[in-house]
Design brief:
By secondary structure, this protein is an alpha/beta fold.
Length: 187
């Protein structure tokens, strides 16, 4: 799809079909069987057309999205619960991009064209307006006049910082000497 493609009858049908087949963010009940934070969820999103990195910590409630092919997520991204990703409006569709090491907290809404840069945080209850860009390492919360409020400026040190979280180190076995605990995997 083009970066900005118009809503056609085919795209409306695809949206309707996916919203009926996989409603509510639990991937048709599969996430209840395998657990929501596991790599299996990333594999399912990839099979549905999303571009998903490694060690993504998925929300316990599932991610509410319909157009998986317009979702791009980097490595070590962390989600809170009950967030919604909308990749289409009545006028347009666009990618939602979450770069490595960013965090999307609880009850966030991301609209088409949103880009959350490396290490940036979108705090609880935030509304990322259409074509919103959170700069690298910045922190945003809530919403004022339809846009999130910046509470910490851009931090360019995130260009060189490691995005791997302690959870990722423990759970995925990456350098286990760097954390004092281990997570028992599903498989």
């Amino acid at each position: 799809m083009n970066e900005f493609h118009k809503i056609t009858s085919w795209n409306r049908f695809r949206y309707w079909l996916m919203s009926k087949l996989l409603a509510g963010g639990n991937l048709g009940g599969v996430s209840r069987l395998v657990g929501t934070h596991y790599e299996v969820i990333s594999i399912i999103y990839r099979l549905l057309g999303a571009k998903i990195g490694n060690r993504v910590y998925w929300p316990g409630s599932g991610l509410d999205i319909v157009e998986y092919d317009l979702l791009e997520i980097g490595d070590d991204v962390v989600f809170g619960s009950r967030s919604v990703v909308l990749t289409s409006t009545a006028r347009t569709s666009n990618y939602v991009t979450l770069e490595s090491g960013c965090m999307i907290a609880d009850r966030c809404v991301l609209l088409p064209g949103t880009i959350i840069r490396r290490g940036a945080v979108l705090g609880s209850g935030s509304l990322a307006s259409e074509n919103f860009e959170a700069l690298i390492g910045s922190v945003w919360v809530g919403s004022r006049e339809g846009k999130p409020v910046n509470v910490a400026p851009e931090d360019k040190t995130y260009y060189t910082k490691d995005t791997l979280s302690p959870f990722g180190r423990a759970f995925y076995g990456t350098d286990p000497n760097r954390v004092a605990y281990t997570v028992i995997p599903l498989w």
